[in-house]
Amino acid sequence: MRIVGLMSGTSLDGVDAALVDVTGEGIDDVKASVVHAITLPYDDARRAAIHDGILAGTAEALCGLHADLGEWMAEAVVRVCREADVDLSTVDAVGSHGQKVWHRPPADGRRGATLQLGDAATIAERTGIAVVSDFRTRDIAAGGQGAPLVPWVDQLLFSLPDRARALQNIGGIGNVTRVPPRGSGEAVFAFDTGPGNALIDAAVEIATGGKLTFDRDGRLAARGTVDEPLLADLLRHPYIPAEPPKSTGREEFGRPFVMRLVELLEPEGDQDWMDLVATLTELTARTIADAYGRWLVPLGLDEVILTG
Q1: CA–CA separation, 56 vs 145, rounded Å?
Q2: Were both Cys, which of 126, 155, 261, 305 would link to 74 (CB 3.0–4.6 Å)?
Q3: Are residues 51 and 79 in the same domain?
C-alpha cells in the first residue's frame, strides 16, 4: 500500500507529511519505505490560531479551527505527493493523527477524553483519498491513554534481538517507549515523561514578545543559570512521580503554566528570562531522567535513542 501519514504534535511547529510504501500484514513482516517527507510549517497566524484554541477556544473558534486544520493537512498531502512526482490517485490512504487541542487522561475511575482537530472529511474532499483518523479518540474509548500508534511503530522499526531500547521523543511533551529485545515475549511499555519543549518555547515567546518561538540550539538556556529552589519546587509536580500508564499535554504543561511562573517571578531584564529558560530546560531533562530511574532502568535498558 502507498500511504501518506500526517502528524502535527504539541510543538505546534507545523504538519509533517510522509509518503510511505508499506508491505506485509503484521509485526513480523511489515516493511515501510519512505518515498518522500516534508514539513509544512505553521506561520504566525496559524500557530496563533491553534494557541488561542487551546487556551480559550469558543465553540465557534474551535469549529473554524477544525475546518482550517483539515485544509492545512490536505495541503501537506498534496505537496508531499507533488514534490515526489506521485499522482494522488495512486495513494491508497491518508492516516491523519489530528492536532491535539485538549487531553484529559483517565483518572480516579473517570474515563479519559481527548479533542483532536483537523477535519478528515476536508482532507478526503481535497485529495480524493480515503482518510483514516481519530486514532487517539478510539484508544481513549477503549480505555487507553490516547497514544496507540507510536509504541507499535517504535517496536516495528527499532526492535533488536539482543537489546532493550528506549525511544525518547522530546516534542512539546516528552514521551518514551521501551522496546524490549525482539523475541523476548516482554510487552512494549510507553508513557509521557512530562514537559518537553512546550514550557521552554512558551517562555522564549513571552520573553521576546513573539520575535522568537523557540530557543535555537539552546543558546538562551546556555546563557542562563538554573534557579535551583524554583527547580526543586517544579519537580514536586504530582505528574512526575505518578505511576504509568499516564499521559499529559499542554493543558498541564503549556503557556498558562509559564504565565503563572512569570507572575510569581516577575522577570525584568534579559538575564532573568534566560535564567527561567535555563531552569525550564533543566526541568525537562530532569523529568526524563527521573522517569528512566523510576520505571525503565529497573526493567533493563541497553540503549536510548533520542529524538525531538
Answers
A1: 24
A2: 126
A3: yes
